[in-house]
Design a protein that fits this description.
The chain is an alpha+beta fold. The chain is 19% helix and 41% strand. It is built from 14 helices and 57 strands. A hairpin with a 5-residue loop joins strand 53 and strand 54.
């Protein structure tokens, strides 16, 4: 069981997954409804209007609506965008146990509710009225649910029965308004019975119907089957998404499986194992499994076809009350006394490994495939060649969907003459299987059956040797291709929990605690060590010069001696990664592309990172060539998506000082944005950034930074024009800054012009003295005469050596 998210709160009584967003709604025993984002683990919103426990909650499929029902006899419909309750439906006379929107809620705006008043009710939430009252149970109705696709409702009650109801009559009545109820004259009152009004013709018919309905209940919804078999009250019942099956959970500690035909329903089998009241059960949306939870503090998984329990998860001290399954993803949620958990029964990462040259080996279902990239046609990413069927070994492996599938697979890169693949799974604590096949005729000569137990992935260390980690003594065991042990090596540190590929023959990466250790088996020496928390896998670059260690929340890139080159962190879990293998462009083994839950990102050995594109669903990168990312999806189907890694290539070319390539990209690529300009400035390349910027003030700053006087002057004039067009004073600081930069470079013409612009007469006079321009100094003297500036006159006379003028100034 993989816990994806855990919350702490009051007792959770109701749960619902949002159909598309990563949200889950939990209704609590203290009357609060919480809306959680389970991917980030935060509460998005809280709704608090119910008095007392809220036992049922559900999301609308398309609109931003939540329905809830509580112990205050109220059904409330909330808009989570407006963050308020829209309206309340009244009618039930006791606690409401469950509420649910119709699965096809656009066509049928219905809500189904089950209550302790021994009835079920169907409501129209657009008209805000009750359509139908379903009576027949003679104790509390604990749950009610629509069938995903047919006109059926299932309900479970403490009267020890499960009832299946047929809603065809109501659907027909709603679709084609044949009776007086739906004609313009017939309106609905709060009980869903006809109320005469408007149209005189419909009144008599409606009244008669009304009387009949009051006496006998309407015949829109009829009981199709009553399933009897439980010895105690039934807490939950659920339909199978596609097959005509039902599951029910009861206080007699049993989960029962029922089958339905057109005419009758019968009990198929009883699943025994819980030791207290079973509070909830459901069919797994993707596998043939029933999942149930109970007040005995456990969640149990049952195989539908074999009808046996295959897994049990226990919790200390918390009784389970409710479960929910996601419609499309492989996610389940369970609510207990002190919060809830969102979990999966197995990992969904397909086992894959790069083969020689253009090949990828991966497992889909029970088949080992070789995917050949070089034989791609019609937009496909390549050709799939089936190699071998992997046999099921061990008790657990007989059931799909509970973590018995192959987890790791590694290919022997050291053996050019034949193909060797190690497939490892976590069945029975960890097992491996060695499959050998000919490379020329892939599906022809396959030998398998060489198996053993191991911990974590097994990895090849030479042409005819592989290493596995012994489960009990944590020793490294070296075996040959006949599966015979040739050597046992004690690891250099205790608590090693996985072996990863060492990047060269005879080497191996050991994962221990929060570090990776590069170990040479023959000489038994440690070649390097690096610390990185929660390492998942190691990806070696094609030339073997670098390794990327993928961690849960980060990537560490190191060289072949395990010296760290860079380390990056991410807030979202990292799923996979692949090195660029483009034959040209200089990015091979320099650009690492990795995927998170919803993004494709890149990382360079220099430590630069960036986002390339978003993803709708997680993908597992296997190979990067130019602007194509080859990957596997969760169904282990090979796919290729386009990526634009121009920004990464640009940064790489800058770092490697390939300025020709940089300038070509500047001219021909769609690179833009403040981020690139800021990046170039921070890396000390303002002259390159100048090519990106058109805005005069930023251009002026960048031009000054790289000492480009001409560009700075252009920008200064542009700024001056801009301010005169807007009728503002022009900014003298600009010319002052330009003057000081020009002075630094000794460009005295620009200095003179900028001093003239800023009317800095004293500095101008001094500049003319330095350049020996007496003509202009005489002009400056005249100007100071006109300006009646005594001090300036005296200075200019002094600089000109004009004694008579100085005497004249002093006399005045």
């Amino acid at each position: 069981m993989l816990t994806k998210f855990e919350s702490k709160s009051a007792r959770v009584k109701g749960l619902a997954f949002h159909p598309v967003r990563p949200w889950i709604c939990a209704s609590l025993h203290n009357g609060v409804i919480q809306l959680w984002d389970y991917r980030v683990g935060t509460v998005i919103d809280r709704f608090e209007e119910h008095d007392g426990p809220v036992r049922g909650v559900d999301f609308h499929l398309h609109e931003p609506l939540i329905v809830s029902g509580g112990d205050d006899y109220k059904i409330k419909v909330w808009d989570y965008k407006l963050r308020r309750c829209l309206f309340t439906l009244l009618g039930h006379l006791d606690y409401i146990r469950t509420v649910q929107f119709h699965p096809n809620a656009t066509q049928f705006p219905w809500i189904l509710s089950a209550s302790d008043d021994q009835t079920l009710r169907l409501w129209d939430f657009q008209k805000r009225t009750c359509l139908s009252l379903l009576t027949g149970h003679n104790h509390y109705v604990m749950c009610a649910a629509f069938h995903p696709s047919e006109d059926l409702i299932v309900s479970a009650s403490l009267d020890q029965t499960v009832r299946v109801w047929d809603t065809t009559g109501l659907r027909k009545k709603q679709m084609g308004g044949s009776t007086g109820l739906d004609s313009p004259g017939g309106m609905m009152d709060t009980n869903g019975m006809g109320r005469p009004g408007g149209n005189p013709g419909g009144v008599a018919g409606a009244t008669a119907l009304n009387v009949q309905a009051e006496l006998f209940g309407t015949n829109d919804v009829v009981v199709k089957y009553v399933l009897e078999g439980h010895d105690r009250g039934v807490n939950w019942a659920a339909f199978h998404p596609t097959l005509p099956l039902l599951a029910s959970a009861a206080d007699d500690r049993q989960v029962k499986l029922w089958r339905m035909s057109e005419t009758k329903a019968w009990e198929v089998d009883t699943l025994r194992g819980h030791v207290n009241n079973v509070s909830c059960c459901l069919f797994h949306p993707k596998h043939d499994l029933i999942v149930s939870n109970s007040e005995d503090r456990s969640i149990r998984v049952w195989d539908v076809s074999k009808r046996v329990g295959v897994q049990t998860f226990r919790r200390e001290g918390d009784r389970f009350w409710i479960m929910a399954a996601h419609r499309t993803q492989n996610l389940l949620a369970a609510g207990h006394d002190s919060g809830m958990i969102v979990y999966k029964l197995e990992r969904e990462r397909p086992a894959s490994t790069p083969g020689p040259a253009n090949k990828l080996y991966y497992v889909r279902g029970r088949e080992l495939f070789c995917h050949d990239y070089s034989r791609a046609q019609n937009g496909a990413s390549g050709l799939d060649v089936p190699i071998a069927t992997i046999r099921r070994v061990g008790q657990q492996a007989q059931t799909d969907g509970i973590g018995s599938a192959p987890r790791y697979i590694s290919y022997n890169q050291h053996n050019p003459s034949e193909g060797n693949v190690l497939v490892c799974s976590e069945v029975d604590g960890g097992t491996y299987e060695l499959i050998t096949f000919s490379l020329t005729n892939a599906s022809g000569s396959v030998t398998d059956g060489k198996r053993g137990s191991c911990l974590g992935p097994a990895t090849f260390i030479g042409r005819n040797r592989f290493a596995v980690l012994d489960r009990h003594q944590r020793q490294i065991i070296v075996k040959n291709l006949n599966n015979e042990t040739t050597k046992r090596v004690q690891p250099p540190v205790p608590n090693v929990d996985a072996l990863l590929d060492g990047g060269a023959s005879g080497r191996i990466l050991l994962r221990a605690d929060d570090r990776a250790i590069l170990f040479e088996i023959q000489s038994r020496r440690v070649l390097g060590e690096i610390s990185s928390p929660k390492i998942k896998s190691a990806v070696w670059s094609p030339d073997g010069s670098k390794v990327a260690l993928l961690c849960k929340y980060g990537v560490v890139i190191a060289d072949r001696q395990l010296e760290q080159l860079c380390s990056i962190n991410d807030n979202v879990r990292i799923k996979s990664g692949a090195w660029d293998v483009s034959p040209t462009g200089g990015t091979a083994s320099e650009l690492f592309v990795y995927t998170t839950l919803h993004h494709v990102k890149y990382c360079l050995p220099s430590g630069d990172t960036g986002t390339i594109r978003t993803l709708d669903n997680p993908l597992y990168a296997t190979r990067v060539v130019k602007d194509q990312l080859f990957c596997l999806d969760r169904e282990a189907r090979a796919r290729v998506i386009s990526i634009d890694a121009t920004e990464a290539r640009f940064k790489l070319a800058l770092a490697n000082k390939r300025y020709g390539q940089v300038m070509q990209m500047v001219r021909h690529s769609r690179l833009c944005g403040r981020a690139i300009v800021a990046y170039l400035q921070s890396k000390g390349f303002p002259e390159v950034a100048l090519h990106f910027v058109r805005e005069p003030r930023t251009r002026f700053r960048l031009a000054l930074a790289c000492g480009n006087i001409e560009a700075a002057m252009e920008s200064a004039f542009a700024l001056e024009q801009q301010s005169s067009a807007e009728g503002k004073e022009s900014d003298t600081n600009v010319w002052g800054e330009l003057g000081s930069e020009a002075l630094r470079q000794g460009n005295h013409q620009v200095v003179e012009m900028s001093y003239q612009r800023t009317k800095d007469f004293d500095r101008l006079s001094f500049l003319y003295l330095l350049t020996g321009d007496t003509e202009k100094l005489k002009k400056m003297l005249k100007i100071s005469n006109m300006r009646k500036d005594i001090m300036s006159r005296y200075h200019n006379a002094l600089l000109l050596g004009d004694a008579a003028e100085r005497i004249a100034v002093l006399e005045e």
